[in-house]
Specification:
The chain is mainly alpha-helical and 106 residues long. The chain has a single domain, classed as Rossmann fold. It contains four helices and two strands, in the order βαβααα. 5% of the residues are buried.
């Protein structure tokens, strides 16, 4: 649609730049480097979006990844990896993400 813009948000700048170069061939796209696994970083993202004059987020897709490597490692290490993955895949998308993004000024 006219006026729509895709923002890709991630931790690896080189991947973001490459993706935006590809997407820009079919529409408006931009990237923001951020790690959304903490409330502080979500606050920074919201500020960055406001600075870019974004007033609404209509679609939010969470595509965080991760894996648990359990070969001969302690249960405590496996539990930490599990919680880190849970945080990256779940908490970054639903808590506080959309609640903070809903605060964008209109």
């Amino acid at each position: 649609m006219a006026g729509d813009k895709v923002f890709i948000i991630g931790r690896r700048e080189n991947v973001l730049i490459s993706a935006v170069q590809t997407l820009s061939k079919i529409g408006a796209a931009d990237w923001i480097k951020a790690d959304l696994s903490s409330v502080e970083n979500v606050d920074k993202l919201v500020k960055t979006l406001e600075d870019k004059k974004v007033t609404a987020v209509d679609v939010l897709i969470n595509n965080a990844g991760g894996s648990i490597k359990a070969n001969g490692i302690s249960l405590e290490f496996i539990a930490k990896q599990y919680l880190d993955n849970f945080k990256a895949n779940t908490l970054s998308a639903v808590c506080p993400g959309p609640f903070k993004l809903n605060t964008l000024s209109t």
